[in-house]
Specification:
Keywords: Signal. The protein is α+β, with helices and mostly antiparallel strands and 466 residues long. It folds into 2 domains: 338 residues, Immunoglobulin-like; 123 residues, Sandwich (Jelly Rolls), CATH 2.60.120.600. The protein starts with 7 loop residues before the first helix and ends with a strand. The protein contains 11 helices and 17 strands. Helix 1 packs antiparallel against helix 8 and helix 2 crosses helix 6.
Amino acid sequence: MRTVPFSRRHFLGGITALGAGLACPAWLLAAAQPLSQDPAEFQAITREAWIYAYPMLMHYQTMQKQALNPSASEYVGGFGRFRHYSDLFTPKNRDIVTPNNDTPYSWAWLDLRAEPWVLSVPAVDAQRYYVHQLVDMYTQNFAYVGVLSTGREAGDYLIAGPGWQGQAPAGIKQVLRSETEIAMILGRTGLNHADDLPAVRALQQQYRLRALHDYTGSAAPAPAAAVNWLPWEIQNGLGAGFITHLNQLLTLCPVVESERALRDRFSRIGIVPGQPFDVAALNPQQRQALIAGIQQAQAELKAASEKLPRPISMFGDRQALANDYLKRAMGAALGIYGNSIDEAVYTGSRLDQRGEPLVAGRQYRLHFRADQLPPASQFWSLTLYDLPDRQLVDNPINRYCLSSRDALKRDADGGLTLLLQREAPADQSNWLPTPAKGPFFLALRLYGPSEAAKTGQWQMPAVEAA
């Protein structure tokens, strides 16, 4: 369950509301080093730093709800434990956007400062898909454990922080290294059909997390120092308070060599790990430059997100993203915690073949030629969502997606035609009901995508209006 995936509506609306968050809060502490006196430089660095920080801030918002706030409905129980979600979503579930019923989620957060943790997974049969996506505080997917990456056998995997220098104990299949001291696990377990939920729940209960000392039966290390986590409020957190939040988060993110010059540049406006920051202590020119840089960054991200609805290259590890911070920010804005391209490809459409929006009251079809079927080694699914809310659509047969695991009927030539309309066709096998009113869009997910899908050589065909 993605608890903070900003939909475009939420993101773009939030940018508009952030003006109020640019006021200077009085509780911020004083910065302790001289800052740039050049307003142009101050604004340019602020713009660059805000785009860099945006995914980390959205990630922190998720962590606040899931790991730090026991009163939140999203709370998973703190660090070092799984919370499993295994109920199917319906249009009544509106706490997240673009939900799917293909892969029920399992969430966990790990504090790696004192010692590593061990993730244990069971063996699965050839029909079962599962994956555990490991995410660092930059929102980079630094490792995977699952059928496509590590196979279908049972195994124990050690997840270590950047400073760990120990030796992996016997029985560990692989050491997975996070660049940051806090890591998140987002597990997905493939649901083969609606009656498969008991098997999914049973498998989720076999995912196991143990601190390294529990795994080896040794004495526990000294606990890491408690963190006085800053409270989160989105307007301030994405506004003038973003530097204060970033400075705290960077204490858990040791600098990597490829970012050393960038971090040095950031220090010119007070971005230093653990450093307090006081907006009120800035001179008028610096304050104006700070606000202008934030607004410039927000506008840049908004414009880029409108041009690129959801490209397949926004998610991955540091090597895949190549320190492209705008790309990383777009991934966080349009669908935080998307899978890396080797695991899944996301595509879809909100337009028909003529470039007109998909709307209620019309009949559409999505036709795949026999040589154009979605190329996925595990499975594919097509889900319909309303706009602008990006939620599942109520319909008389409670069908919210079609997938390769359904009993779909092929065309005479081996192709596949999916029917998208409100009225029930004579044969409902390939029917995906559309809304009673308003616009909608389609999301096509390919799990285990082919090289053609990953490179863009294969593309979803246009939605045809009747």
